[in-house]
Amino acid sequence: MELTFDDAAAAKIQPHLGPGKKLLLTFEDGVGQYSQHAMIHMMIQFTLNVVAQTAPTDGYNVVVDSNLGPILIKDYSAEDLDEHLTVHLNQTLNTMQLSGDGGVIDSDMGFLDFTEKK
Are 85 and 3 a contacting pair, CB within 8 Å? Predict the structure, then answer.
């Protein structure tokens, strides 16, 4: 499995990356500390998370190659993903769209940097 960020999406994400950080692609199912909510409806939702390299990532046991480096996912979330994935930034709405071989997977993929000070 591989994920490619378009130039605009990469430009949005890259300032959040650096030494001591890693990326997670979180299936929003309410499981684990990085999932923001459980799905109450029939939509598939994902969030791209930036976490510290030392942050616990229990359950994120599959590595997806990307043009921004490795991304960890929960193994069972692969069922909702395709072999070739892309992330496109809609610059008008400042939202990211996750797509695969079969079309759009999440038209408004979230982005959370857990390393930012609140």
Answer: yes
Using alpha carbons only, give the angle 106, 112, 118 rounded to the nearest 5 degrees: 155
The whole-angstrom separation of Cα 43 and Cα 65 is: 25
Task: Say how far residue 64 (Cα) sits from the centre of its chain.
Answer: 10
- Residue 44 — very low, low, confident or very high, per pLDDT cuts 50/70/90? low
Model's pTM, two decimal places?
A: 0.87
CB 83 within 8 A of CB 65: no
Position 42 pLDDT exceeds 60 = no
pLDDT at 28: 80
- Tally of residues, the chain: 118
DSSP state of 80: G
The b/e string for 62-76 (b: 16+ C-beta within 10 A; e otherwise) is eebebebeebbbbee
* Half-sphere exposure (Cβ direction) of 111: Cα atoms closer than 13 Å: 18
pLDDT score recorded for residue 13 = 97
